[in-house]
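TICKET: design request
STATUS: open
ATTACHED STRUCTURE:
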């Protein structure tokens, strides 16, 4: 460590469980944060301040006013500018700790790209908001022997668990059946307070630090927290020998690949993501010109926002769009083909 690093991390190196040796390990570690929302933004900020040397920040979404109640780092300006969360987070981290290398990736994580996103990582942090992605993370991390830290929160409650390849249960052991999108409550429908996401994210980040420095104190239990009732509880989960992932090594989701085109319901009712299988580089300037004749258009280097009364959407450079105000998946697909038509 150089002099500046010795001073910056002094409060952490004097903490005997980390020490200078632990700090050196953090500085040379690579972590990926999947989803930079309520959990991921806190995790990314904590790991950046702690000196984890390389952070890959992956998120498909952009900053909105409704995020600011709980999502760390983001500002009203980020929301007004419509910045992708991965880009906004990387910009703020550069101001917080210029010694951290960030790799912001604006994309929808899927079976086609997840392996390349995790293969060179020392750890993956789950900041996602849905079961399908966690099941995919579980398969990819097991296949590549990358540890990951599950986290989830809703209302004033949350839970977290370390998933350590070759050691103990995996996410599929605790969730054998993956619920279908739209079949379970989300932050948009059931609400969430910013305090629980900060608590769960802080525990995830602490476990990440322990895993990265090789601490013997890494948790092997499933921890649940109910902040409203001040209840903390942890249980030991047994590995399911019949688990398709950690028991049998089957990677059904990875092997299924990416469908031709997909429409996915998002957290907010009436919101759908429409994406093409292969990312297409599109000319946002040309789209802005064309669409400005029929509605309000705002665009930055990363995305275009279009609003024409009941129909509104955000179009990303890779051809992906988040449609608002659609009645169902078929309607979202219709809006996409009418206005974007790729
Ligand atoms: Zn398992």
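STATUS: resolved
RESOLUTION: sequence designed for all positions
ATTACHED SEQUENCE:
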């Amino acid at each position: 460590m150089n002099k500046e690093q010795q001073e910056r991390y002094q409060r952490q190196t004097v903490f005997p469980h980390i020490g200078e040796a632990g700090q050196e390990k953090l500085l040379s570690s690579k972590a990926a944060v999947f989803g930079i929302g309520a959990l991921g933004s806190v995790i990314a900020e904590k790991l950046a301040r702690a000196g984890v040397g390389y952070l890959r920040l992956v998120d498909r979404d952009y900053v909105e006013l409704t995020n600011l109640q709980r999502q760390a780092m983001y500002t009203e300006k980020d929301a007004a500018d419509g910045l992708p969360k991965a880009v906004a987070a990387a910009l703020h981290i550069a101001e917080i700790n210029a010694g951290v290398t960030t790799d912001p990736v604006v994309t929808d994580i899927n079976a086609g790209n997840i392996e390349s996103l995790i293969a060179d990582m020392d750890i993956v942090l789950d900041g996602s908001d849905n079961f399908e992605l966690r099941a995919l993370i579980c398969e990819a991390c097991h296949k590549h022997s990358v540890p990951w830290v599950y986290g989830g929160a809703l209302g004033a409650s949350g839970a977290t668990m370390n998933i350590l390849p070759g050691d103990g249960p995996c996410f599929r052991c605790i969730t054998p059946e993956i619920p279908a999108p739209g079949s379970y409550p989300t932050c948009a429908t059931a609400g969430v307070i910013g305090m629980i996401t900060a608590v769960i994210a802080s525990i995830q980040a602490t476990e990440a630090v322990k895993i990265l420095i090789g601490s013997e104190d890494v948790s092997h239990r499933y921890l649940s927290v109910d902040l409203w009732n001040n209840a903390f509880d942890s249980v030991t989960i047994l590995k399911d020998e019949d688990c398709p992932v950690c028991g049998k090594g089957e990677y059904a989701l990875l092997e299924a690949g990416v469908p031709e085109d997909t429409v996915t319901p998002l957290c907010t009712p009436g919101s759908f993501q429409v994406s093409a299988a292969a990312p297409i580089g599109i000319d946002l300037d040309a789209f802005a010109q064309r669409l400005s004749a029929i509605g309000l258009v705002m665009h930055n280097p990363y995305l275009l926002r279009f609003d024409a009364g009941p129909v509104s959407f955000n179009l990303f450079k890779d051809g992906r769009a988040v449609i608002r105000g659609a009645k169902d998946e078929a309607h979202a697909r219709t809006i996409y083909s009418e206005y974007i038509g790729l």
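CLOSING REMARK: The chain is about 35% helix and 20% strand. The domain at 260-340 is CATH 3.30.310.10 (TATA-Binding Protein).
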